[in-house]
């Protein structure tokens, strides 16, 4: 999720476990440690644009790495903050470890995918219960952290933690309702999906993007799962078949290997862009949940050498019109 939310949840957990005197210090150390796992975004290569996809949410987000990550944060932050505030190294380690531990679990609640079991498995866990940015989740949690630190009342932090758990529970119920609506929509079309998923749209848990797979296509729609349920029909796209869609591609080339890397990252939800034939899309994400308009893709070129990598592209151009359409979906208009 966004750094503010990661830090805020990282703060509220050690605050909940601290006493009144240490609430401020626990929150500060937890806040910084709660963001630390995302330092893996700096693992990049100018020669390999997809390298960061393999390492983001990998070892730094693994459950087995939590005590190590907490210890690294404690060694740094104790010298800068903890020691000056009268904390022992053990207290700094506890607060940092609790903050660090919250990061991967929160990320797994989003749709991106987090390798919780690395190095034993490269499965990307995505529980699809919350958007990567959700003000309704973050702002009450942030208020609880600030009040707990300023008033020295751990109870307020515990109330914030309870809010976070309740909100995630509500997201789970919403997700399951959206899946049921997606299954009903597929049945109306005479389809028997090979798999079907529902993902929250941007910044809310009211409107959900449903994606289901048949033998040859992916179907994308949006549903409002509660408070006047409604279906926002979308469109479909053919699944990527490399031999058919990219007949010029050398199967032993780096670009061919990059397609498979992108397929793994996208959990198999990839298709060729119907407008630009050399672009391979991750159809899981779009600004409008009933659109096939990717937020990122890879581009391949027939002129590339056997060792040349595919290019990674982002497509995050938002318009006021599209934002207003999303708002109308959220508000049920």
From TrEMBL:
Originating organism: Candidatus Seongchinamella marina
GO terms, molecular function: hydrolase activity
Cited InterPro entries: Transcription_regulator, YdjM-like
Key words of the record: Hydrolase, Membrane, Transmembrane, Transmembrane helix
Domain of life: Bacteria
Pfam families: YdjM
Segments passing through the bilayer: 63-81, 93-113, 125-148, 155-173
Protein name: Metal-dependent hydrolase
């Amino acid at each position: 999720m966004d750094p503010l939310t990661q830090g805020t949840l990282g703060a509220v957990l050690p605050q909940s476990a601290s006493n009144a005197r240490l609430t401020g210090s626990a929150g500060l150390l937890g806040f910084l440690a709660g963001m630390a796992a995302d330092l893996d975004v700096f693992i990049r290569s100018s020669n390999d644009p997809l390298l960061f996809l393999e390492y983001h949410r990998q070892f730094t987000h693994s459950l087995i790495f939590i005590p190590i990550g907490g210890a690294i944060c404690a060694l740094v932050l104790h010298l800068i903050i903890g020691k000056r505030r009268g904390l022992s190294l053990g207290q700094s380690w506890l607060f940092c470890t609790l903050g660090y531990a919250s990061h991967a679990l929160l990320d797994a609640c989003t749709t991106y995918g987090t390798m919780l079991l690395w190095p034993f498995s490269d499965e990307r866990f995505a529980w699809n219960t919350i958007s990567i940015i959700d003000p309704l989740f973050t702002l009450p949690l942030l208020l609880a952290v600030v009040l707990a630190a300023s008033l020295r009342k751990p109870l307020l932090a515990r109330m914030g933690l309870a809010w976070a758990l309740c909100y995630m529970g509500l997201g789970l119920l919403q997700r399951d309702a959206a899946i049921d609506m997606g299954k009903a929509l597929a049945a109306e079309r005479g389809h028997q999906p090979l798999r079907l998923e529902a993902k929250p749209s941007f910044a809310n848990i009211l409107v959900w993007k449903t994606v289901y797979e048949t033998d040859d296509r992916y179907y994308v729609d949006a549903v409002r799962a509660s408070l006047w349920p409604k279906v926002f029909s979308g469109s479909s796209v053919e699944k990527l078949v490399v031999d058919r869609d990219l007949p010029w591609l050398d199967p032993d080339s780096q670009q061919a290997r990059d397609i498979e890397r992108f397929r793994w990252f996208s959990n198999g939800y990839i298709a060729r862009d119907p407008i630009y034939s050399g672009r391979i899309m991750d159809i899981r994400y779009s600004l409008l949940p009933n659109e096939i308009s990717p937020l990122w893709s890879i581009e391949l070129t027939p002129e590339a050498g056997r060792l040349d990598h595919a290019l990674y592209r982002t497509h995050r151009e938002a318009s006021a019109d599209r934002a207003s359409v999303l708002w109308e979906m959220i508000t049920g208009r």
